[in-house]
Write a structure and sequence with these properties.
heterodimer; A: two-stranded antiparallel sheet; 2 strands; 2% strand; B: alpha/beta; Rossmann fold; Alpha-Beta Plaits; 2 domains; four-stranded antiparallel β-sheet
Chain lengths: 251, 272
């Protein structure tokens, strides 16, 4: 248990020591999105009939920040440790694969939530949002951050070079987040893209999280929760199976 | 390897020294066979095996996010130890790291980083310490300090396993040596026995005459006037040589004996 706590502590210190890069920068990025899109689209788009576009956008941006930063935390930490070789310090210690996975994912969740809260705090200047169903929002934030943290562990295990990690980030994570309905309600999409969006697990995280704010969503939140939970379990099992055999960590 | 030994693992590059260390440390899986540390199987009972083992890796690795003290505290935590500062301070003191305790790892010289690696391997007071090429690229001063410390640990009862291709190091420190070649042990014996049984001696003589009594033991490498250089297989041959000279009434003006070294053993066994 102490091994787990120490590894978690190390992972938290690691991002907190460079919080300008790992917290302030993503908050700024999200705010820039908000300013630009809100200015361009406010008044032209209404969602769910009555919600102003900026209000609609904020939860999406918050969740996008949570997800991207959760992924960035575990993936970059693991791949950097593998490249510099200092992963050996953990591999030499009596740390079980469960403790290893748990520490990386939990640290990712915390980083995701810290950034998400940062974005939410800054956007208070722009919109006046009320959480209609805070527990749903919290559940989706936790599970979504957990899923992306686990995906980050998976990507970290599989990648042996920085460019492989960059490819994973740019060709998998980015498209899935951008096409998940952060910036629009998928009901405004043509039939084909609407169907495609339903195959994107990220869509359910954004949609479910947004339900926590408005009490409205494209898909019933319980269904979204089931999709997200199932994805989390599947990715976690894949990670644990790889970690147990030591794939690409122990020769 | 026996408990309490200072054991040397020698062999050319690619002989499998680091692979063997990695199997023992759980960094690699053996294709077949098993390894145990103080009775604990490295795969089945990995937690106990790893607690028994402190490994100083060959590569100069470090985590640039942390200071020396943070690095050592984290390493203690990975081994399940809390509040380890008394021991951390003692280790840092012995490794001359105390003044660098709060310096970031990035700012340390290569030699200092190596010392931190040694300290990291010791945070959990492991009974078995593995040093994988610990002096590669390390300055003389650190080398001396490091050996003093390691020998002290050995005297205190720690088992030391050393891989090196500096043969003098193995000769000076190890009680027992295994020589590896292409993944196989080609020799395993006490350092003394290896030197005695395998090594040749070089005997340099200056006599009061220009010829050696015949027959004479050993192999003549050169003979110029009254100076002779001979290769002897064993010290036993030296006795024979001296006896032959006495019988022949030859007087020795100068005599030099180059003692055996592991280099000879090594070269012969690894066939290079």
């Amino acid at each position: 248990m102490r091994s787990f706590r120490t590894l978690l502590h190390k992972e938290l210190l690691r991002f907190w020591k460079v919080s300008v890069q790992t917290v302030a920068a993503p908050v700024l990025t999200a705010v820039l999105y908000l300013v630009v899109f809100a200015y361009a689209l406010e008044g032209r788009v209404r969602v769910y009939g009555s919600i102003p576009y900026t209000d609609f956008l904020v939860p999406g941006l918050v969740m996008m920040s949570v997800l991207q930063n959760a992924f960035a935390n575990s993936s970059s930490s693991l791949v950097q440790s593998k490249i510099t070789g200092n992963i050996v310090f953990v591999l030499l210690a009596p740390v079980s694969y469960l403790e290893f996975f748990g520490a990386y994912v939990l640290a990712s969740i915390i980083r995701g939530l810290v950034v998400g809260l940062g974005v939410l705090a800054v956007t208070f200047w722009f919109v006046n949002l009320r959480l209609q169903a805070p527990l749903w929002a919290l559940a989706f934030a936790l599970l979504g951050a957990g899923l992306l943290g686990a995906l980050g562990v998976l990507a970290g295990i599989l990648s042996e070079k920085i460019d492989q990690m960059a490819a994973f980030q740019n060709f998998v994570i980015m498209p899935l987040t951008f096409l998940s309905g952060v910036f629009y309600s998928i009901h405004s999409l043509p039939e084909f893209w609407l169907k495609l969006s339903h195959a994107n697990p990220f869509f359910y995280m954004i949609d479910g999280f947004r339900y926590g704010f408005f009490g409205l969503s494209d898909v019933p939140p319980a269904a979204s929760l089931a999709v997200v939970s199932t994805s989390l379990v599947a990715v976690s099992l894949a990670c644990l199976a790889l970690l147990k055999t030591g794939y690409r960590l122990r020769q | 390897m026996e408990q309490g030994e200072f054991f040397g693992l020698l062999g050319p590059n690619g002989a499998g020294k680091t692979t063997l260390i990695n199997v023992i440390a759980g960094l690699a899986r053996a294709d077949s066979g098993s390894a145990r540390v103080m009775g604990a199987d490295v795969a089945r009972d990995y937690r106990r095996a790893r607690r028994m083992l402190g490994v100083v890796p060959q590569e100069l690795v470090f985590d640039p996010f942390f200071t020396v003290r943070e690095t050592l505290r984290l390493q203690s935590g990975y081994f399940g130890i809390r509040a380890n500062d008394a021991w951390i301070d003692e280790v840092m003191l012995h490794l001359d790291l105390a003044s660098k305790a709060d310096v970031n790892m990035r700012a340390l010289s290569g030699g200092m980083k190596r010392r931190v690696l040694v300290a990291q391997a010791l945070v959990h007071k492991p009974p078995v310490i593995v040093l994988d090429e610990p002096t590669a690229g390390v300055d003389v001063e650190l080398r001396q300090g490091l050996w003093q410390f390691v020998r002290r640990l050995n005297r205190d009862g720690h088992t030391i396993v050393l891989t090196t291709h500096y043969l003098e190091e193995a000769e000076t420190h190890c009680n027992r040596i295994a020589m590896l070649k292409a993944g196989r042990i080609v020799a395993l014996d006490s350092t003394r026995n290896l030197l005695d049984s395998f090594s040749g001696l070089e005997l340099r003589l200056r006599l009061d005459r220009d010829e050696l009594p015949q027959p004479f033991p050993g192999r003549m490498l050169s003979g110029e006037g009254s100076r002779f250089v001979l290769r002897l297989e064993h010290y036993r041959e030296l006795e024979v040589a001296l006896a032959r000279l006495r019988e022949a009434g030859a007087g020795i003006i100068e005599m030099e004996l180059e003692p055996p070294d592991l280099e000879d053993v090594f070269l012969r066994l690894t066939g290079r």
